[in-house]
Write a structure and sequence with these properties.
Distance between the termini: 54 Å
Length: 280
């Protein structure tokens, strides 16, 4: 396998249909909202001579107003207003966009990884794109459009710090996506309390489908490290990230067990507390 680090500007991939690698490359860097929402069916094969590409930032359509400031937290009661439900759905839509892009990023960044792993990343990317379509439909049903609210590229600020494929599955699949196993039921409850059953059902669906993504990460982490314990996983998280961001307020034990996390892992995750510094 020919693997080398190259400057993305030097790549001569004029057609995204030439390979999965080219399709992924074009998707990450596109600044066309239509392409971000529907990049078309990916090719069937990878580039026969894969080359590592480390794309640091995605293309951003003009419709998306990227903010670097931390947004104010939203309370459950705020969802009585359709605008606030659309704003929250817009945030979820952008999370899915970043996830789709970062699966493509990993296909390119870890071009020397097992082809079955890279194919799995492509499959997850397709799930994220489908979730984006569902979120967009609901946002529009509420009377709003993609771009009506600011977005933060929070995942892009952190995930590309992963140096290895093991760090990537530890952070993205076993960490951020696993935390969604807790977040989705909570938000489903919020939408139901606001009388938005369609929004609640969408959260339920995304949460169910997230289980397979976490299981995918667990299986590869176990294969590459020979371990699936909490300590090995937490040590694989890129610094300064900690397990604190990788869980919800109430651990969804049933979903995590379906994703093949051990009881010991789940117990340790729930019990973990950040170290306290300074005076005791």
């Amino acid at each position: 396998m020919n693997v080398e680090q190259v400057d993305p500007a030097a790549v001569d991939w004029t057609e995204p249909s030439s390979s999965i690698d080219a399709w992924a490359y074009h998707y990450v860097l596109s600044d066309d909202l239509d392409v971000k929402c529907d990049p078309g069916r990916p090719p069937r094969t990878f580039d026969p001579t894969p080359t590592v590409h480390d794309l640091r930032r995605p293309g951003r359509p003009a419709q998306l107003r990227v903010s670097t400031s931390k947004p104010r937290s939203m309370a459950a009661a705020a969802l009585s207003e359709p605008r606030n439900r659309a704003k929250l759905m817009h945030k979820f839509w952008h999370h899915e966009l970043q996830a789709a892009e970062l699966m493509c990023w990993a296909i390119l960044r870890f071009a020397d990884a097992e082809e079955s792993f890279r194919a799995g990343l492509l499959g997850i990317c397709q799930d994220e794109l489908r979730h984006m379509r569902l979120y967009r439909e609901h946002i529009e049903a509420l009377g709003f459009e993609i771009g009506d609210f600011e977005v933060r590229d929070w995942f892009w600020d952190r995930v590309p710090t992963c140096r290895t494929k093991t760090e990537f599955v530890a952070l993205m699949g076993m960490g951020l996506e696993a935390a969604n196993l807790e977040h989705t039921p909570r938000f489903a409850d919020w939408f139901r309390r606001a009388g938005d059953e369609a929004g609640a059902a969408l959260q339920d669906q995304v949460g169910r489908e997230e289980v397979a993504h976490v299981r995918f990460a667990m299986r590869w982490f176990r294969q590459w490290t020979g371990r699936d314990d909490f300590h090995t996983w937490s040590e694989a998280l890129p610094k300064p990230l900690t397990p604190l961001l990788m869980r919800g307020k109430t651990i969804n034990r049933a979903a995590r067990e379906k994703a093949e996390m051990t009881v010991e892992f789940i117990d340790a995750l729930g019990a973990w507390r950040p170290e306290r510094h300074g005076r005791r």
